[in-house]
Amino acid sequence: MSAQFPAVRVHSAAARRAVVLTIMLGTTSVILATTIINVVLPDIMRDFAVDQGRVQWLATGFLSAMAATMLSTAWWVRAYGLRRTYGVALAVFVIVSVVGGLSTSIDALILSRIVQGAIAGVIQPLAMIALFEVYPAEERGSAMAAYGLGVVLSPAIGPALGGLLGEAFGWRAVFFVTLPLCLAGLALAPKTLTCFEQERAPRPAFDTLGFLLLCAFLLFVLGGLAHAQRAGLSVGGLAMAVVGTLVCGAAFVAWEVRHRSPMFDPRVFRNPVFAAASVVGFAYGMGLYGSTFLVPIFVQTISGFSVLKAGLLLLPGGLLLALCIPPAGRLTDRHSPHFIVCAGLACFALSFLLFAHSSAQTGFWTLALWIALGRLGLALMIPALNAGAVQGLPPWQIAQGAGALNFVRQLGGAFGTSALSLLLQWRLGVHQHDLAAAVDTAAAALAASTEAFDDSFIAVGLVFLSALWPGWHIRRA
């Protein structure tokens, strides 16, 4: 049986705004935690004496766990209600954040990030579910602008905030910065989310086998990429990763279709508009989280920027994003989403194709301008993508659609971060081999690193260009 929630009647505009504010405090906090750590990864590598392959699990472990638990949100809401699910999950997130900030080993730090991601996966879809239940169809574009502001602005400004905190207080501060937002959300929830109180009903059974199959699928996909980065992937290892991914993925879909109370209903993808939006969402996750992982490392290792300067580089783009999200939501209310989504994809692709021509001599404001162009694309894309994805779904499938769209976006982010890290390492080895005979070894090493990053930026641009075709199919019915 698919998730089904009764329509929530919230007649007051002030009450709706209170719901948006409360739910977005938690959503913004968990998404901010996704990327805020990226800019201080070099400091963590130095403090714990680990390499890039190990420290990247602070990013990919979070995203993987987030993807794994995201599809369970509909069950939590059916079993305990939206208000209680939000409050308990946010309280656990606060505790785990404190534990992460106090960690004394890299293993403890990675474990805390994985648990953070698991809780974040439950919290993030709650905002989309709440907004679609309290806003009528003609106002959902503007509501999605508020949602998109948290979803996109957080990873956009996260590295900037992380740079400021890392420079002033050290990397541990990035684990504590979201606590005020979380505590504010916890304080407001009992008063503003009372409209989501539900009548007592038998608690549905949790889809344990489905959850385990999903975790196995993610383990084969992302574990294979991580193993390839550490030791190189042999033909046998590649075959095992591919076969394991296909078998677990197929078993998960087959089980969910037949289960009476599935964690996720794959039939939501029968809607062609939603299916197209999901492809765009996967590409968006790959590009956004992958590039947010690459850019801070690039400007610190190639351009020689400090942690603070690397963080500030993303600030102009984040401010532009904040200004453009509301008008983008109004555009979505008036026009078919496919025009707006494709315009956003083109801007982001151009941004990183320009990045592919950067070097150690490229100036701060040039790089900031290219990033701002990509953030403009994200501002256009997100309200249209979120509203357009579920426009043709029946009301009883909206919760499943919200969870599925968030899931594919986070899966794209986890896959993109791992794949781009692997691509960067591979291209670095290729260019180092090509320049091995150079007399000036220091200059050759810098040139090889620059070319490897440029190749990776081209890959990001191509991912967004490839999403233009499905983006064109997100048409208003």
Keywords:
mainly alpha, Growth Hormone, Chain: A, 2 domains, 0% strand, disordered N terminus
Beta strand count:
0
As residue ranges, the low-confidence spans are: 1-7
The tally of structural domains comes to: 2
> Mind summarizing the main beta sheet?
none
How does the overall form come out from the CA principal axes? globular
Helix content: over 70%
Estimate the mean pLDDT confidence: 81
CATH superfamily of the largest domain: MFS general substrate transporter like domains
End-to-end separation in angstroms reads: 26 Å
Tally of helical segments: 19
- The CATH class of the largest domain turns out to be Mainly Alpha
Main location: membrane
Subcellular location: Cell membrane
GO cellular component, one term: plasma membrane
Family: Belongs to the major facilitator superfamily. EmrB family.
Summarize the structure.
The chain has 477 residues and is mainly alpha-helical. Helices cover 77% and strands 0% of the residues.
Can you offer a commentary on this structure?
Residues 19-477 form the Major facilitator superfamily (MFS) profile domain. InterPro entries: EmrB-like, MFS, MFS_dom, MFS_trans_sf. The protein is an all-alpha fold and 477 residues long. It contains 19 helices and no strands. It is globular, with a radius of gyration of 21 Å.
Topology of this structure?
Layout: H1 13-35, H2 41-48, H3 52-55, H4 57-70, H5 73-80, H6 82-101, H7 106-134, H8 140-169, H9 179-192, H10 208-231, H11 235-258, H12 272-301, H13 307-312, H14 315-334, H15 337-355, H16 364-389, H17 398-434, H18 441-466, H19 468-471
